[in-house]
């Protein structure tokens, strides 16, 4: 990275010239270290001197100082990781008021305020990700001596309170997935939600589900792959084994109609993908669901609803409808019924049915 100033000795005194200037200014110092410290305090940090201008160089593959250094040290850096970090940077930092603060005036309080804003507008996890990105950038800046101290030092992650996943009622699911009245912007997104809601497949399995895995005549889907992260790519499902999932007649009919309208129909094409056939980012289906729930007036934050909630929902409603437990376990891909029990959230009305059964027993 280009240094923000240049030092030059004239006689016994050191002079400095800021990046972009043509004139040298005296520091009044005879020692080089003291002169450098003097110049550093007066030099703007990054392009334009603001945190946003400095950060804007980062997490772009061709210009990111952090990525360049890691690659020069023969360390592994994945382009997809860089793209994801750039997305967090643009969404939470470059668009925030903190981006307009001069880098040399940045204080720990500014970072804490940023975290609070992201936490309020998004989630605790999003706040942790935003601070993580900023920490990496300022650590790199400190390592390169572009700044004298890293104000993110000592700021820890927000402790995530692991709450029980919420579920959607059958009525809510019908409204969300209605072909005519759904709140999603296009059919691809609705189909992604429909696949998870009707089969209970995991989000990692949805992302890499291909047309060759669909047997329309047999009304089954073969789950044989899952997304394992950017380090490992595509691998086996969580159970380690492929499984077949039964399709409802409604899903069969709607998936066939979707197949006829999409341009990517080759057997190896992903079912849920962009128009050029590339798979969607692992976080996109969850983002799609949250946007749809918000539009439908459902408070997904308060109810802790995520894409995985659709899986919890189908398990709960299937058990309350007395679907054979072994059939449910095999379709969902659980190793034991104990796991399925953990997914199930019985309604009071259903639980009260036990009392009715006891009444019948003693009649």
Describe the structure.
The protein is 46% helix and 9% strand. The protein is mostly helical and 363 residues long. It has 3 domains: 39 residues, no CATH class; 119 residues, Tyrosine recombinase, N-terminal domain (DNA polymerase, domain 1, Orthogonal Bundle), CATH 1.10.150.130; 181 residues, hpI Integrase, Chain A (Orthogonal Bundle). The strands form 3 sheets. Strands 1-2-3 form a 3-stranded antiparallel β-sheet. Helix 4 crosses helix 6, helix 5 packs antiparallel against helix 6 and helix 8 packs antiparallel against helix 10. The radius of gyration is 27 Å and the shape is elongated. The N and C termini lie far apart (85 Å). About 1% of the residues have low confidence.
Summarize the model shown:
The chain has 363 residues and is mainly alpha-helical. It is built from 16 helices and eight strands.
From the structure above, extract its key features:
363 residues; mainly alpha; DNA polymerase, domain 1; hpI Integrase, Chain A; 3 domains; three-stranded antiparallel β-sheet; 46% helix
């Amino acid at each position: 990275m280009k240094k923000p100033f240049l030092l030059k000795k004239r006689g016994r005194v050191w002079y400095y010239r800021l990046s972009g200037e043509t004139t040298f200014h005296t520091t009044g110092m005879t020692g080089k270290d003291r002169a450098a410290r003097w110049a550093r305090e007066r030099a703007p940090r990054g392009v334009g001197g603001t945190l946003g201008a400095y950060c804007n160089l980062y997490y772009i593959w061709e210009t990111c100082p952090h990525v360049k250094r890691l690659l020069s040290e023969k360390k592994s850096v994945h382009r997809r990781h860089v793209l994801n970090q750039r997305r967090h940077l643009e969404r939470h930092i470059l668009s925030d008021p903190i981006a307009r603060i001069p880098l040399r005036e940045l204080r720990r309080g500014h970072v804490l305020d940023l975290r609070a804003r992201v936490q309020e507008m998004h989630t605790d996890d999003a706040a942790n990700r935003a601070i993580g990105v900023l920490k990496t950038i300022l650590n790199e800046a400190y390592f390169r001596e572009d700044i004298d101290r890293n104000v993110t030092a000592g700021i820890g992650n927000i402790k995530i309170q692991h709450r029980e996943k919420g579920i959607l009622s059958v009525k809510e699911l019908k409204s969300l997935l209605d072909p005519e009245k759904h709140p999603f912007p296009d059919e691809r997104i609705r189909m992604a939600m429909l696949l998870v809601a009707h089969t209970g497949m995991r989000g990692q399995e949805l992302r890499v589900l291909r047309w060759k895995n669909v047997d329309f005549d047999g009304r089954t889907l073969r789950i044989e792959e899952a997304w394992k992260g950017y380090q490992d790519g595509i691998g086996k499902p969580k159970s380690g084994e492929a499984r077949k999932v039964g399709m409802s007649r409604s899903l069969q009919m709607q998936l066939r109609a979707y197949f006829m309208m999409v341009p990517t129909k080759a057997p190896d094409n992903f079912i849920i993908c962009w128009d050029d056939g590339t798979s969607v980012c692992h976080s996109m289906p969850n983002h799609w669901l949250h946007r749809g729930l918000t539009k439908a007036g459902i408070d997904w934050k308060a109810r802790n609803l995520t894409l995985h909630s659709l899986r919890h929902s189908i398990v709960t409603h299937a058990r309350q409808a007395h679907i054979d437990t072994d059939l449910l376990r095999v379709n969902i891909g659980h190793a034991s019924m104990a796991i399925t029990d953990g997914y199930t959230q019985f309604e009071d009305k259903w639980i009260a049915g036990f009392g009715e059964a006891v009444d019948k027993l003693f009649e």
